[in-house]
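Notes to self after the call with IL:
- keep both proteins in one doc
- input above output, always
- annotate only the second one for now

Protein 1:
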Amino acid sequence: MLGKIRYTRLKIWWNGWSDGRKNYPEKDARHPAQYVRELMDACENQLARLGKNWKQSEEKLDAEYHKAFDNNQKTDEALKQAEDRNQGAATAYEGAKSELDYLEHVSPSRKWYIVFFTFITLSEFPINSFVFELFGEARWLTMIMSALICFCIPWAAHITGKALKEGLRNDRVIATKFIVMGLMIIGLLTGISYMREKFFEGGVQQILGIEMDVRIVTMLFFLINGTVFLIAMWTSYTAHPRDPRTFHTILRKYREAKKQFTMAERQLGEAEKEQERATNRLHDVISIRKNGFEKMRNEAVEVIKSWDNHIRYYCKINVRYRKDGSEPVSFHAEPVYKIPEGLQKLEWGWDDEIIRPANATKGNGTAVHEQDETMDFEKIAR
């Protein structure tokens, strides 16, 4: 350092002894002695170099700080928007959910309803295939008739049960569907039963090793398919609402509200994490910047203390070797140094609306540091 290289204790002693022997400065002199002024200039030069080095580092730290601060502000705003969206989605979801309390109960659910009718359709095919083979019909005709029944009965039961639930009095179209489906199934089963009875008219049929009257077998065929139809129709009746339009509108509204609420919850979580990362980054940058300024401040204080000691030593030697034994008035005044502006204050560059007292918090509870860091070198050094 400059003070340790050029201005040694011996050199300071020599100048103090030389000026003291000449009774310089005069007793009533109020301005610093020439050598004191030289020591002060040396101190200011060293402080200026320190300030220049700090300025280069501070430019990078200041840029990082403003970038982190702006990003933190953006994430705060994004978090607020996410909270507003989540609140709105939660309100809409609760409203849609409350409407479900007044929604008509249907059972089974859509999934199990499809499973049930698929099972009936698949079960009808082998049963009716077996029955038609007993007619002695050709294989291809047996397959066609079996497929016709296995699809017609579940489909007709679906339409009939749905029509019953929606009400026959209020809508002629629904009533017509019910009558047509009912007549179609009755006609289909009756026609097949009649054909079957005529084919084996007046005879006895052996089924699975058991001899049975043809009429009994025909009735059994009619009874099995009729029972399947009634069960499927009742299932369709219980699985459909009375007012499908209102029912599905409320259900779609609930599902959409739930979807939006789930999405808003996810976005809120992401916004909270992003805001936390931005806040942590801002605090890290602030900490690095404050620590750098603190280190620079300590170095500046040590520089001032060092040169103050040089000046005191010069004054002490000067007084000791003065012929008149007096102590100049200027020796009682503390040296006043010109401190570089960059070393006096750590600027954060906040707007008035953003400036808050030390240890204050933002609206989201994030701790806020002081507006600036100032340093009174004279007071700290002495």
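Protein 2 (the one to annotate):
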Amino acid sequence: MKFLYIFLLFSNFTFSQTTSIQYTYDYLDGNTKPIYSFWKKYVELRANNNLSYKNMWENGNEDLLISLSGYSPNFFEMYTNNKLLYIKPIIDNKYEIASMFYWIQDEVNVNLISIVKYIVVYKNGEYKLENFLENSTQNWNKKNVGLINYFYPKDYKFSIKEAKKANKFIYRLNQLFDLNNEKIDYYIAENCDKQTEIIGLDYIATKGLMKECGYFDKNKNILLSTYYAGEFYKHELIHLINKKYINSHYLFLTGLSVYNNSPKASLGKSTKEVFKEFNKFIYEKPDLKLSFTQDFPKINNIGTEYIISAILVDEVLERGGLELLKEAMNTINSDDQLNDFVENVLNIKDQNEFIRKTSLKFEKDNFKFKIDL
């Protein structure tokens, strides 16, 4: 769920995919010119959704900076300018590059969107890209516990107890949702800023603002955590379900990620705490029409789809248990299908009234989750 908020910040200028990016670099010489040209080609291919950019990666790797940032649309697809900031030799035939994406608002205002870092290697007569994550964490400690490969800084105090809890939880998920027992690479950074920095995202608009964050890349089985969330980031681990139910309507998967008794179920808060805030918010806005498929209101710039979708998950479990939920995730993927399911299977005729009434029970001390996640 990491950077959905960032999309909102830039939604006023990201309506269309970029077709022209301005390239500048001030220090071209015999060594830097081919690297500059290589980067320019990569930006051009990505900006035009030309999939041949994948051939520019070493050993068929993928761009983890994009997949792990959760930024949508990604930097290359925005209507932006790009400036290569530096090319820095690391070791023989290996370089670190930094590049800036920015938007010119008018004659006097420039909006910085991001500063990104990549590794470029020269091998067998050609340049290739490597992910910054591999370079930035090469001196970190590594520990395997069951299905999880943990990576963390040397000054971090690792908790084997929490790691075992995380593994127990994964086995529980696998059992409940018929998942595969696949290994996870789990990175624990000091905080949200450090978390973005290790993947090569040196600057974004939320730098210094976010207290809690995380991300799970279902394609690469990589999870990003923080010292605060630690070895057992339940909210992100639940996203393992996304790998199995790839065509599910996102509200079922979103709701499951917060439908648990963790004290950090959503942005470092428990489900009870989140619903207390939500109930106060909607009580003060009686004219606000709530539903499972229309625009979700925001509380402090954070969307409430996590809250409303947890209500949906709870009602599905109430009506038909886990089997109905899995059936719904296998068959429902559009808003029209979801509305039909809500009205005809769950027998909810007034979504606004139902959401307002049902949300109250989530903040009560005697509320019990219908599955143990």
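Annotation: Residues 159 and 345 are 45 Å apart (CA to CA). The longest strand covers residues 110-123.
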